[in-house]
Every structure is written in C-alpha cells, then in structure tokens.
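Subject: for your reference before the review

Hello V.,

The reviewers asked for a structural picture of the protein, and I figured it would be easier to keep everything in one thread rather than splitting it across files. Below is the amino acid sequence we used in the manuscript, unchanged from the supplementary table.
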Amino acid sequence: MHPLSLLSLRITPLRFRLETLGPFRVPEYKGALFRGGFGQFFRDLVCITRAPVCTGCPHLASCSYSLVFETPVQPDTFTVLRKYPNAPHPFVMTPPLDARTAMAAGVEMALDVTLIGHGAEFLPHFIYVLEKMGASGRYGGRFALRSVLSAVDGAVVYDGAARRILRPPVEWRGVEDQPARSIQLDFQTPLRMRTEGQYNTSPNFTQIAQALLRRLSLLGAIYGAPAAEGNDWLHRLMAQVDQVRTESAEFHVYHWDRMSGRLGRRVQMDGVMGSVRVSGDLTELAPWFRLGEWVHVGSGTSMGMGKYRMETEA
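And here is what came back from the structure prediction:
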C-alpha cells in the first residue's frame, strides 16, 4: 500500500519566492536563520501571555505558535511519544541553497516549505510571519515575499503584490509505484542523525532507512491516522532494508553552528553531506523514500536538514 494511503498523511509542498530589497548578508547554510526568525516573529504575533518561555503556559494545547513550532507532546493522546519532550513539527522549512553569503538587492531566493497534516491550515500564518520578518531586516537584511507557489503543479497560491491567497494549495498525492532495482540518495543539506546515542558521521543505508521509516511512522501517528495494520508495515519494511546491497556510500562532515536563543549560546549542528547507492528489490521501499524527499530525515528537519534527492533505476 502507498505510504500516504497507509498513514492518511496530508503533504502540502510550497515554494515561497523571496526577493532581497537591499544588501543581504547571511551564513552559507541559512536554515537556522530562516527558522529562527520565523519562530521569533510567529511567537511575537500570537503570544497572549508575553511570558518569556512557553513552559507551563495554560494555552499550549490551543496556541497556534505552540502547535506549529513547539509541538508539545500530549502523552495521553500519543503514547508512542512518551519518551520525547516534543513531537516532530508539522512543517519542514528548507532555506535557499545558494551558498553565497552576500547578495545585492533584487536577488530572488526560494524558501521551500512542506506543511504536514493540519500544518496546511496555518499557511496564512506562514505568509504573514515571513512578510513581517522580511520587512524588519533583522535577519540578514530586508526582503519581500513575492509569491507562494505550489511545489506540486507550480500554480500561484499567494500573490504578494495583491497580498491575497488565490487558491488552496495542492496536496502531493505520491507517484505511481514502479519497479525499482536501484536507489541513489544525494543529500542536498546536512544529514544529522544519532546511531546508538552518538552522532553518526558515516551513516549507511540501513541506518538512514531506519531513521526515515521511524520518522514517517511518528508523523503518521500524530498528523495522520493510525495504520489499519498497526506496525506490521514498519516491521516488514525494516526486514526488506536488511536485504539491500550497498554499492557505494561517500559522506563528509559539514561543519556549521547556530545561535540558540533558548540556551543563550552557539550550538554545533554538524551533519554529513554525500550520497549512498544501493541495489536489490526496492520496489516497495521506493515510495517511502519519495515521501522522504518532502519531509526529510534525521534531526533539524524544521530548518531544512536531511534533504535528499532520490534517483531510481528499474
């Protein structure tokens, strides 16, 4: 069964077209800058208590900022998350992948956002917050939100000049299953994942696949609907992963850090970049990795980490 059908998961991929309005200075990897600015402006927009932190707030269960950005765990509702302080976010925000750190006015940038499950309902918040963030100039410089496009069919969802949502965004419905004997994953943003409690600097396909399937299982449990067959599908796919043969795996460490407002210090966010190629009977696994292209794998996905492009051969 296709993963979207099994998990009842809504996937809404969008592209926010931004344009610099003056000199723009940013880090090479811009994920923390955009997510950090987005989070700060989002909280300022909707917080009614003005408390310095969200911990203990009586409005956590209904606050739009909390639901999107903090995503608190409710153990009585999601028993699968009892070991986690926070649930996976209902969005993935991939920053502009241009490595330039200095830009002039008039440069277009693409900020890709995948809204997951009920995250699609918060599209007006994303639009308003990014407009406010761009107008402030506090994060690299001033920019304007020119439009929002569907990453599925390219249709204009939001017109920045008219400041109007033109149509509901299209959900990604997956692709038709086709035979696959080879899969190659090329990572376009740093992959950061733990294996046995340690950050993995040389991941193999099995470890990546297990991390992806666990993430998809959690997303389905929280933002979709419980799978009709329980976790049998997960165990079956995990067993298939063990039968895959690795043809090549080349990774190198990508060093970067970010400023944590919560901790008041810089935090190392090193990940790995590279690719892995495997062969075997991958027909049933391939659709799950297609879904992973939109939701990413590993930690830091809300700031764009763990993004890959997949190629298959029959």
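For the response letter, the relevant points are probably these. The longest helix spans residues 205-223. The two ends are 19 Å apart (CA to CA).

Happy to draft the paragraph if you're swamped.

O.
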